[in-house]
Automatic annotation (TrEMBL):
Protein name per Swiss-Prot or TrEMBL: 3-hydroxyisobutyryl-CoA hydrolase
Protein species of origin: Polymorphum gilvum (strain LMG 25793 / CGMCC 1.9160 / SL003B-26A1)
Pfam family, any one: ECH_2
GO cellular component, one term: cytosol
Domain Enoyl-CoA hydratase/isomerase residues, every copy: 14-333
SUPFAM superfamilies attached to this UniProt entry: ClpP/crotonase
UniProt GO MF annotations: 3-hydroxyisobutyryl-CoA hydrolase activity; isomerase activity
Gene3D superfamilies: 2-enoyl-CoA Hydratase, Chain A, domain 1 (3.90.226.10)
Class of the enzyme per the UniProt entry, highest EC level: hydrolase
Highest taxon, organism lineage: Bacteria
Length: 349
């Protein structure tokens, strides 16, 4: 068992604490495995009424997966590189199907893999310090961990915008979009934990702590966002933004120009397909994409630019949306040589 994630039973609740604060609680394979094993046990334990997940350190709930480790494994040619994603995606599905209330206390950063272990649960509480994002297109990756299911179902095409641009949301926007079920004050987190420890009814226990985050800033641009990002092609989105010329459109085009063109194209097709798939289908689709993307240039170049050399000057291949080949793009959605993802944890990847 790893000390990177801690487990505790208090009263009627099982508490999970992500315990890598120096790494913003980024997920490792050991953490994923430990969480999956404990959730299995707690699902069968009648003394556990609900599960509460939190992050140590006060800066982040969970900033994602341990991407640097994945990068290093790929550079070394480690054939087990994809195992992390197979098990992470199974954990996401396990949380989605969990038979008891699953309460995430989101204080600080929640991105990538952190979204995958929170947004699929029944209760998502976020404080005024929350920052939500799926930043993957900025590192040549794609918005996985169930983003295929969640993002295209968010209102006003806001999830499509998040997926393609790596746009961020704070508390009010996250509540409006459905990322959160509750807005709460950070100062109340200890009291919330105490209430949950003894609660027979999670909703009743949380009701006194509901906070009003005020109007969602995203509503200022929601109409234009929806008009652009609900188009039926990536070219249509870009054309709509170019035709608009508004401050939002200009800023969005500038943001997209800095992202991996291949990743943005993958994310758009991923969102298009995901809106018509069930959760299991979405996870299988993501496993197909990840098997391909880990073999290609842009992921390694993006991680190099952002996390290794930190020059923030990735050299994407290709470097423009026009140069993304449709046949090459289609290959990301084909069944991998290892076969499609088996969601039962005991099955092979």
């Amino acid at each position: 068992m790893t000390d990177e994630v801690l487990f505790e039973i208090r009263g009627r609740a099982g508490f999970i604490t992500l315990n890598r604060s120096a790494a913003l609680n980024a997920l490792t394979l050991a953490m994923v495995r430990a969480m999956a094993e404990r959730l299995d046990a707690w699902a069968r334990d009648d003394s556990i009424a609900h599960v509460v997940v939190r992050g140590a350190g006060g800066k982040a709930f969970c900033a994602g997966g341990d991407i640097r480790r994945i990068y290093e494994m790929g550079k070394a040619g480690d054939p087990h590189q994809v195992d992390f994603f197979a098990e992470e995606y199974r954990l996401n599905a396990q949380i989605k199907a969990f038979s008891k209330p699953y309460v995430s206390l989101i204080d600080g950063i929640v991105m990538g893999g952190g979204v995958g272990i929170s947004v699929h649960g029944s209760h998502r509480l976020g404080t005024e310090r929350l920052t939500f994002a799926m930043p993957e297109t900025g590192i040549g990756f794609f918005p996985d961990v169930g983003g295929t299911y969640v993002l295209p179902r968010m209102p006003r095409a806001s999830g499509i915008w998040c997926a393609l641009t790596a746009g961020r949301m704070k508390q009010a926007d996250a509540l409006w979009s459905g990322v959160l079920t509750h807005a709460v004050h950070a100062a109340d987190l200890d009291a919330i934990e105490t209430a949950l420890a003894e609660a027979a009814d999670v909703d009743a226990a949380l009701a006194p702590f509901a906070a009003d985050p005020g109007p969602a800033p995203i509503l200022d641009t929601a109409e234009e966002m929806e008009a652009a990002f609900s188009r039926d092609s990536l070219a249509g989105i870009l054309a709509a933004l170019q035709a608009s010329g508004s401050d939002f459109a200009v800023a969005t085009l500038k943001t997209l120009a800095a992202r991996s063109p291949t990743s943005v194209a993958i994310a758009f097709e991923q969102m298009r397909r995901g809106r018509n798939l069930d959760f299991a289908g979405c996870m299988r689709l993501e496993f197909r994409i990840v098997n391909r993307i880990l073999r290609e240039h842009d992921f390694y170049e993006g991680v190099r630019a952002v996390l290794i050399d930190k020059d923030n000057a990735p050299r994407w291949r290709p470097s423009s949306f026009d140069a993304v080949d449709s046949a090459a793009l289609a290959a990301y959605f084909e069944e991998p040589a290892c076969g499609d993802l088996v969601l039962a944890r005991e099955g092979p990847p």
